[in-house]
Amino acid sequence: MMYIHYCPSCHKIHMLNGHKQYCPRCEKNLVELKIDYMTYTEMDAKERAELEANCAIPEELDKIKTTYRMVKYSKWYKEMQQEQAKAQEESTDSKS
Ligand SMILES: [Zn+2]
């Protein structure tokens, strides 16, 4: 499966096989985009250039990047961990 990635360092969109984390060109961190391969291949040069321009804007990039890899750093995940830590503290407290 091909996935669309953006390299903020090269300012380039890369089509890569699989979920890649590092740019094959500069080896810096890549951002994976929500856009799927089929959609990207159907885009014309102008649309691709627009997409690339949007990727260069951090707020826009936030909207179009995938977040699945970041799930464990999400607010939801942190809150869940805090709840678990709290529950553990409470249970050890009641034992002592
Ligand atoms: Zn790069």
| Strands side by side in the biggest sheet | 2-1-3
- Average pLDDT level: 87
How many separate domains make up the residues?
2
- How many helices? The count is 4
Distance between the ends: 54 Å
Bound ions, cofactors and other small molecules, one mention each: zinc ion
Biggest sheet layout: 3 strands, antiparallel
Number of strands: 3
Structure overview:
The protein has helices spanning 37-42, 45-55, 58-64, 75-95, and strands at residues 2-7, 12-17, 31-36. It is an alpha+beta fold and 96 residues long. The chain has 2 domains: 2-65, no CATH class; 70-96. The chain has a 3-stranded antiparallel sheet with strand order 2-1-3. The longest helix has 21 residues, at 75-95. The protein is elongated, with a radius of gyration of 19 Å. The site of zinc ion has 7 residues, from loops.
Task: Give a short summary of the structure.
With 96 residues, the chain is α+β, with helices and mostly antiparallel strands. Helix content is 47%, strand content 19%.
